[in-house]
Amino acid sequence: MSNRLINWFRYGSPQSFYPLAGRMVPWFAAAAAVTGAAGLWIAFFVAPTDAQQGEAYRIIFVHVPASWLSMFLYIVMACWAGLGLVLNTRLSAMMAHAIAPTGAMFAFLSLWSGALWGRPTWGTYWVWDARLTSELVLFFLYLGYMALNAAIDDPRRADRASAVLALVGVVNVPVIYFSVKWWNTLHQGASVSLTRAPSMAATMLTGMLVMAIAFWMYSIAVALMRVRSIMLEREAHTDWARELKESAA
Amino acid sequence: MKPRHKRLALIGGGLAALAVAAALVLNAFQSNLVFFFSPSQIAAGEAPRDRAFRVGGLVQAGSVKRNPEGLTVNFVVTDTAKDITVVYTGSLPDLFREGKGVVAQGKLGADGVFRATEVLAKHDENYMPPDAQHALEQAQKAQKSLRTP
Description:
The structure holds two protein chains of two kinds. By secondary structure, chain A is mainly α.
């Protein structure tokens, strides 16, 4: 007897994943809106002023979740890319392509919000310390991944080439994460880590985590929306895509 | 071995090799990846002699002396083991405070005084409301006075 209740490979085909993704998008979008509103409310009205940095610290509620997501999405993207290389499934590469722009956006948001935070606290927008530089490399990896994808006309070849790039870039993620531990950096050390109690007031931490969930839900919703259009574009020649087009017309 | 197992093994092996290579490169560049040197490192002669570098540490409490005319300021950067005197002319960041982190860029003079061209504040990873910090300071003071009767 098979104990597998869901046949995952069934959803590995674009044809059956397309409607499933369509049904999931509104739920994740709604979750993103609700948690985002709650997170911002905590960030602006509940969390106290910081003793050292005053009100400027409130950028943490965008900066840290954006940075987390930029790293996490890269790993997810690389996993899909690797899965595509190994199993040769069509959907995996499409998922990786769908995640890349969102990851790039969060990497940019992380750098940008960091610059705006650095100016009033450190006294500078930018320094070439290990944390900032490795996050910039992450941003360029996302851009490189998207550019490589767009540069190769044959989609299957583009999938394979960009998958290799995505996998090679994974090395950078632990470097970003541990950079503040391994080297002297201007950037602060981690306030929140898995190995010890967070060095933040509880309401501040709550706001940050709720914002992280909001960004997470947003990423899933947007990636699913994007993967649906990639599917339609790539599978335009197939029967299911044609039927869908006819039924919509 | 199925082709996909072969591909999996190839990717796994490739990633492992890459990780090792990256670790070796980062290890080799260890000294170049350091954003600043601590006063102890400077005392041990690890900092470059003839070119600009950065020194980082805590501003020693009570060491900040502002020149009455102009923007020149003297302070001592310490890592609690060694310390170094820094001279800087210019405006300081808002978070520049005694007892807090600082990173200064400049050159070490022959007299052992560090002439900074840029001073940045380095804040720590602790976030708390002002009353919590006040309570913390009170507790530390109480503990100190207990130890030295």
